[in-house]
Structure formats: C-alpha cells, structure tokens
Amino acid sequence: MLKRIQSLLEEVENLQASNAEELETLRIKYLSKKGALSALMADFRDVPSEQKKEIGIRINELKTRAFDKINALRAQLESTDSDTEVEGLDITRTPYPIELGSRHPLSIVKNEIIDIFSRLGFSLAEGPEVEDDWHVFGAMNFAENHPARDMQDTFFIESHPDVILRTHTSSVQSRVMEHTQPPIRIICPGRVYRNEAISARAHCFFHQVEGLYVNKDVSFTDLKQVLLLFAREMFGEDTQIRLRPSYFPFTEPSAEMDISCHLCGGKGCSFCKGTGWVEILGCGMVHPSVLELNGIDSKIYKGFAFGMGVERITNLKYQVKDLRMFSENDKRFLEEFTAAN
Ligand code: DAH
After folding, report:
1. How far apart are CA 142 and CA 322, in angstroms?
2. Beta strand pairing status for 205-215 and 184-193?
3. Which residues is 258 bridged to in the sheet?
4. In degrees, to the nearest 5, what angle opens at C-alpha 120 toward C-alphas 117 and 122?
5. Is 295:311 a contact under the CB 8 Å cutoff?
6. Separation of 71 CA from ligand 1 center, angstroms?
7. Which residue is closest in CA terms to ligand 1's atom 6?
8. HSE-CB for 275 with a 13 A CA cutoff
C-alpha cells in the first residue's frame, strides 16, 4: 500500500496539461469518484488497524498534493490564456469613438415638469401600474357603468377581472389619500395603458403627470395660478392660458387647459390649426365624493387636481410628429435630444 501511495505521489508531482481538456482527463483519473484516490480509499478499509494511522496520514498527504497540483495546472492554463489575449492587443491602435448615452426625450420633459412643481412645494408620489378597479375607477368616483370602464379602453386580465393596467395616474391620488391626511401636495409621474390601436396619434401606453393639492381653503384661483406659473416656466414667459369647462368624474368643476400656441405666439398656424391655442391638460377642484371615498372630510378640506400627458407636452416642445417614435428606440431620433440633456 505504501509503495502504491509513493508511486502515485510521484506521478502526481510530474503531471502536465497543455489544455483544459487534458487537465479534465487528469482530474477524472485521479480525483473523481472512480479515480485513483477513491480506489485507494476503498482499499484503505482492509488495512490492518495497527497500520491505519501511518497509511491514513500518507493518503491525506497524497490527496492534498493531487488537489494542489491540479489547481496549479488550472491556474497556469488560465494565465497563459489571458497572456495570449494581451499579446494580440495593439495598444497603439486608435480607439473606437466612445458613444455616450443620452436621456430619453420623455424623461427630459418629465424631469422638467417635476422640477417646476418641486419648486412650488410638491413632492413625488408613485403607485403601481398593475392596479385594481377600486383605485383606478371606484375611488375616483366613476359610476359603476361609466363608459371608461369599458373593455375598449382598459386592459383587463381575463381570469382576474379586478386586476387592470391603470388607465390614468389619477389612481395615485387615491393611493396617497387613503393613508395620508391633508395637507397633501404631490405630483405623480408614471406610465398608463389604454386599449387603443397603435398609430401616429395614439398608443397603447403613454405617460402622465398627475398633481393633487388638498388643504383647508383651497380655491380654483390657486389652481389657475399654479398652472399659469407651470405653463410660463415650461413654455416661456409670454405664454397665456385659457380654461374651458369640461367634465371628469373626479373633479367639480372640471376644466381643460389650453396654452397660447408657442410656435406662432397665438396668431394661428398649422400646428394649432389656426386657433392660436393648444390643449395641454385636464384639471379641476377635487370632487367632494373623491375626498370622502378616500377617507378625507370634505367639510373641512378642499383640493385641486390636474393631469397632463408627457408625450403631449414633449410634442409641443419638440414637434415630434409620430408618437411611435418614443418607444421605437431609433438611435437617430434619440440622438437628436443629446443637446437637451
Ligand atoms: N385622468 C385624466 C385623464 O387621464 C386627466 C385628469 C383630468 C387628471 C383632470 C386630473 C384632473 O387630476 O383633475 O384623462
């Protein structure tokens, strides 16, 4: 037995491998379950007990040497591999131009919107894109049979009719109000989904920024002033706004806001279809039922809310003609915004 160990030890010390395959063959030959060391261990059972100690020590020694040798050969092979790579490298070659990424136009505009409202004391809030019917519609005062709940507009999951993709960021109003008492002053940017055929003017997902202010003594004048300031920061100091009466289930009164066309200065051009005005958002005073549905006392508190489409604002700022450009990741399009970063 001792002789066998000695000769294996010599073999192991002299092992050589010139590639990974050869090394693997050696590993199998000596270290695998069917290898020489395992066979030795099997025979060790029959060694008379007075010799067990000495032979045990020698076998352990052999085992350590064999592992060390195989590992050393592996390390040697790996370092030769990377040496060859370094040898092939021409460090005098002119480098490839390094392309820097730039922000997506929607992110640029979203960040600008966030920045303006942050300066007015609004903080950021977020909610889930995969929502339930309650937060998207119920808590926002949509009647049970309101057409916006129709399968045409909303993406449902067939097996779970209560699970939907949110159709607007107004759901975040409810998510915040249900666990916060006023004063509340938040903006909620995020992606929304609608079951629309994709074209240059419509997409099945887009982005909105929602705003909500709830406090004592909030008036429509406050809403108008905040939105006027926003429009002027976003589109320039000369921008005018106009509010047209409208309808949303979650606000009363409700309005849609136009800004004076910043391309023609309000004179009328093809962009504003000759009217001098372009629509940018929906807004209104939070409906008392919305406050109550979300646990806020409408006798003490009032609020205003607004919601705008980020694609819409981006189109106004940069005249992007086709909505699909925003999600196609065409580098030629994205590179046009590098300077705006
Ligand atoms: N949720 C509306 C939409 O998706 C936009 C909106 C209108 C939000 C009026 C508001 C609001 O907060 O007050 O079309």
Report:
1. 32
2. antiparallel
3. 242, 279
4. 60
5. no
6. 66
7. 307
8. 9
166-216 pLDDT, tens digit per residue, is: 999 999 999 999 999 999 999 999 999 999 999 998 999 999 999 999 999
* Ligand 1 in reach of 337 Cβ (< 6 A): no
Write out the E strands in the chain. 123-124, 130-132, 156-157, 160-165, 184-193, 205-215, 241-248, 251-260, 277-286, 302-309
The pairing of strands 251-260 and 277-286 is: antiparallel
Euclidean distance between CA atoms 244 and 259, whole angstroms: 11
Distance of alpha carbon 325 from alpha carbon 334, whole angstroms:
9
Tens digits of residue pLDDT in 64-80? 999 999 999 888 888 76
Atom of ligand 1 nearest to the CA of 140: 1
| 173 CA closest ligand 1 atom index | 12
Closest CA to ligand 1's atom 7:
282
pTM: 0.73
Is there a contact between 173 and 166 (Cβ–Cβ < 8 Å)? no
